[in-house]
Design a protein that fits this description.
GO terms for molecular function: catalytic activity. This is Histidine triad nucleotide-binding protein. InterPro entries: Histidine_triad_CS, Histidine_triad_HIT, HIT-like, HIT-like_sf. The protein is α+β, with helices and mostly antiparallel strands and about 110 residues long. The chain has a single domain, classed as HIT family, subunit A (2-Layer Sandwich). It contains 2 helices and 5 strands; from the N terminus they run αβββαββ. A 5-stranded antiparallel β-sheet has the order 1-2-3-5-4, with helices on one face. β1 and β2 form a beta hairpin. The chain is globular, with a radius of gyration of 13 Å.
């Protein structure tokens, strides 16, 4: 369950994070294993395990997460950046609490892997 993940523990204040943004709907913090000079995770406070489990009632929250991702990228000085949402283990999701990766600060290749 999403509340029992490391992100749930971060949201509850049990594990510290390098916070870069917070509001009533989400929290953004630096990834502890960054894949680029800037690698921030934006997570909803509501525990949605993965994007494929989001429902119609999450529409505003999902839009908010992307707007926050863009805001964080700008705050971090990025003009060009990548947002990634992995949904499911085969897609590379390792923490089952929905999160948006904001990655930038170097040229990013495609396909990503």
């Amino acid at each position: 369950m999403s509340q029992d993940t490391i992100f749930g523990r971060i949201l509850r204040g049990e594990i510290p994070c390098d916070q870069v943004y917070a509001d009533e709907h989400c929290l953004a913090f630096r990834d502890v294993t960054p894949q680029a000079p800037v690698h921030v995770l934006v997570i909803p406070r509501e525990p949605i395990p993965q994007l494929s489990e989001a429902q119609a009632e999450h529409q505003n929250l999902l839009g908010h997460l992307l707007l926050v991702a863009a805001k964080v990228a700008k705050q971090e000085g990025l003009q060009d950046f990548r947002t990634v949402i992995n949904s499911g283990a085969d897609a590379g999701q390792t923490v089952f609490h929905l999160h948006v990766h904001v990655i930038g600060g170097r040229p990013l290749a495609w396909p990503p892997g």
